Amino acid sequence: MFDTVLVANRGEIAVRVIRTLRAMGVRAVAVYSDADAAARHVRDADIAVRIGPPPAAASYLSIDAILDAAARTGAQAVHPGYGFLSENAAFARACACAGLIFVGPPAAAIEAMGDKIRAKSTVAAAGVPVIPGSDGRACDDDALAAAADALGYPVLLKPSAGGGGKGMRVVRRAQDLPEAIAGARREARGAFGDDTLLVEQFIATARHIEIQVLADAHGAVVHLGERECSLQRRHQKIVEESPSVLLDPATRARMGQCAVAVAQAVGYTGAGTVEFIVPASTPDQFFFLEMNTRLQVEHPVTELITGLDLVAYQLRIAAGEPLGLRQDDVTAAGHAVQARIYAEDPADGFLPTGGRVLQLREPAGVRVDSGLRVGDGVGSDYDPLLAKVIAHGPDRDTALRRLDAALAQTSILGVATNVAFLRGLLADADVQAGKLDTGLVGRRKLPRPHVPDQVFAAAALRALLALEPTGPVVDPFALPGGWRIGEPAWTRWRVQVVGFDPVEVRTRGRAASAELVVGENAPTRASARWDDGDLIVTLDQITCRYSCAVDGAAVWLGRDGHSWELHEQQPLDAARSREQGAAGAVHAPMPGTIIAVDVAEGQQVTAGARLLVLEAMKMEHVLTAPIDGVVRDLRARPGTSVERHAVLLVVEP
For domain 206-443, is the CATH number 3.30.750.24? Predict the structure, then answer.
């Protein structure tokens, strides 16, 4: 076994790999960009090496910098995690040339499976069913169009290189294909450095099921059962579980055998995942989708039901040890479900968000794979995945309940996340019943965002507490409502949750026993106090606990997996907001880079017209005109970076 391993990654996967290295008594070396100098994986490692200035993402893609860090620290092996260089055959070869062990499959296997066109032909030759589509003989626009016409619409357009849903497009009409091809090529080129595309038959109601395999260098290959990954948005998974309620024992066995055959066909070693598409209407039929030649984001659900540490197996296999497992040795117990916590706004098309982590509370009693710590900045340099919460139980219902309870205990303030959305998804009737498919999330109309009156009340009471004097003697004239003969005066607060209209809240009396009015509602009795940093609010004899953090003029409140960014709005701010709203200001929904501007100052546009394209997290986001009007105050320029909420232009009525 190695005594020193360099982890060529960041975030939660780097932390997770380091955890196993420590358990095995192996020294862990972390690498970091300038943006990650204070990151958790840097703190957790035994040694950390700076590998680059901005652009931050390029640091983890620099083969030379990573190999130099390995040489300087005496590392004998490199674990790539997932993403970045994990499926880069050139990196695997460079490690070998430098005398390092790459903790992953041979470069030839990465190349065979990393190119989706080549992968399909390889597995088809091994007798594994594949999705009908282009055969790879020609990949220019005309060939793709001809293949799409032959298949019949709708079709799925996707990059031959890479994964994670980047560059994928569902095309429903022939006239939409040219623009889809252009966008997919551009996004694939940016994410993978390769804009080769293929087109496949689109299976509208499908389930995404994958098989985990382990293979050693001595010819042993086993599978560890399946993971159901059908709950997705933008072709990216958000909830995964094992086992799948869809598969019967015979189909499960056939899929496992096919996964083993795929691994054997390319001389695979290490941990890998073979992904299949299963038509929901014919669950005994399945098609090869792709093979991920690395550890998967969702590997913890397999670990929880099998009791096996996949990272430990990766390391032992890379060190040349035999697998030591036969297929009959693999057993599964209970049910596991994982939810991915992303920095994104489900109400705004799951667009990535950003900010700085002001407060962090992660749940107890379940597994949490997280790279977060208080003070971390979340920007557009990296994928928006922040953490994973994984629950296990003797059956599916128990696992789902435990996961929901854990998400309710999760509090991340300072960055908008999808935690509340995940709780709603787990409560969906079809999800509860196991009636899943890859289009379920897209078909669900999210309920119109709503901020409970209690949140506005809590914000006003927090402000009241902040203004109240403390000490054994209180000057009545120092109280927020002043002192007067007769009844106390009302104090007015104009509270705004980001993305919503402001609401007036009136308070009278002290926070410990106040009269309170939210908007046009009737007066009610309320009280507030601090307890171990939390805001305890009682309203109508119901007491709730809010996590709370302050960042300049912003106040963040969190409860039951929800979080709200609030501001006390001044009269001039209110007037300015009304003016911008009437004029149709277009804001950056997330931090990112402007890559295309399609309009000019003074140009007339109609509501819904494309204005510009913003790139964030290696994905493109089109911003459109909110109203009919004329483009004014055009600040966006191609190639420039913008912050979240920045005004990019104004459409004047």
Answer: no
Nearest C-alpha neighbor of 277 from the set 339, 210, 322: 210
Determine if the peptide bond prior to 55 is cis (ω within 30°): yes
Which pLDDT tens digit goes with each residue over 594-606?
Answer: 999 999 999 999 9
Q: Which residues contact 50 (CB under 8 A, 6 or more apart)?
A: 31, 32, 33, 34, 37
The fold of the 4-103 domain, in CATH, is: Rossmann fold (3.40.50)
Tokens 């010819």 belong to residue: 219
How high is the mean pLDDT of the chain? 91
Give the side-chain half-sphere CA count within 13 A for 389.
28
Tokens 């007015």 appear where?
A: 492
- Given a cut of 90, whether residue 619 has pLDDT beyond it is no
Spell out the domain ranges in the chain: 4-103, 132-201, 206-443, 453-569, 579-652
Region of poorest pLDDT, from 156-170, 196-210, 335-349 = 156-170
* Residue, of 338 and 138, whose pLDDT is higher: 338
Q: Which CATH topology does 453-569 take?
A: Glycoprotein, Type 4 Pilin (3.30.700)
- Cβ contacts of residue 161 below 8 Å, gap of 6+? 114, 115, 116, 188, 192, 193, 194, 196
Percent of the chain with pLDDT strictly greater than 70: 93
User: For the purposes of burial, counting CB atoms within 10 Å of the CB of 189, is it exposed (0-12), middle (13-18) or buried (19 or more)?
Assistant: middle
Residue found by looking up tokens 């970045």 in the block = 84
Q: Could you identify the residue written with the tokens 């300087």?
A: 72
Find the angle CA(122)-CA(90)-CA(26) to the nearest 5 degrees: 105
The CA distance from 123 to 263, in Å, is 9
What are the angstrom distances between the C-alpha of 283 and each of 51, 248, 396, 398?
Answer: 47, 9, 19, 25
pLDDT at 572: 44
Asked if pLDDT for residue 571 goes beyond 60, the answer is: no
Mean pLDDT score, 132-156: 88
pLDDT band at residue 469 under the 50/70/90 scheme: low
pLDDT of 316 strictly over 50: yes
597 token code pair: 């501007």
Which residues are 573's β-sheet partners? none
CATH code of domain 132-201: 3.30.1490.20
Q: Give DSSP secondary structure letters for 35-69.
A: GGTT-HHHHHSSEEEEEE-SSHHHHTT-HHHHHHH
List the structure tokens of 555. 């106040």
User: Residues 173-187: pLDDT tens digits?
Assistant: 999 999 999 999 988
Tell me how far apart the alpha carbons of residues 359 and 547 are, in angstroms, rounded to a whole number. 8
Same fold, 453-569 and 579-652: no
Residue 581: DSSP 8-state: H
Distance CA 234, CA 252 (A): 27
Q: Of the candidates 318, 305, 300, 294, which has an alpha carbon nearest to the alpha carbon of residue 114?
A: 294
Strand pairing category for 562-568 and 491-497: antiparallel
Beta strands in 143-264, from DSSP E residues, in sequence order: 155-159, 169-171, 197-201, 206-215, 221-233, 236-242
Model confidence over 490-540: pLDDT tens digits?
A: 889 999 998 788 999 999 988 999 999 999 999 999 999 999 999 999 999
Give me the CATH topology for the region 579-652: OB fold (Dihydrolipoamide Acetyltransferase, E2P) (2.40.50)
459-to-153, 456, 528 alpha-carbon distances in Å: 51, 5, 10
Pairing of strands 4-7, 27-33: parallel
